[in-house]
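As practice, study what follows.
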Amino acid sequence: SSGINAEWPLRPGLWIEHQVYTHSNYLAFCDLHQYVSCSRVLTSKYSKGFGVVGPYLGEENTLNQPNCVYGILFYLIYLTLDTVPQHFAVIQAKFSLSCSSVLMSLYLGYILAFILQDLCLVCLATYLVNLGLTVPAVNNFSEMMRSSAEDIWQKEEVMQKNK
């Protein structure tokens, strides 16, 4: 069990998005400066469908959801996997999910730094949580692979002795 309530950084993101769209004078707690603004990032064209879904499938497409929605779904799946027995498929799924979250964090971090030229504290918290989930997932996956390799070698040795 990771012991992390991993979706917590996304709750403020959804709240901020909602408030900015419904209240024109809303100032988010994380809007500290012109270049440190969660509101600006969370309302950019990259804040929905990772900036990819809308241009390719249409802005009104069901898949063009706020990135926070995708994040919450990701964390709910991950946390659900954390509550079941940690068999091979579960460890492999957590490894794959956590690695994909780091790749998405790198993609969104690039957009944040080099395209939007902004610093979003909610986004950074999410990237840190993703990294925090990835470290134990990689360790567990590596340990599982080591154990599997040792089992294979032991079975091979037994087969060689029985010839």
Q: What stands out?
A: DSSP finds six helices and no strands in the chain. Confidence is low (pLDDT under 50) at residues 1-9. The longest helix spans residues 121-161. The helical segments are 10-22, 38-42, 53-57, 67-82, 88-115, 121-161.
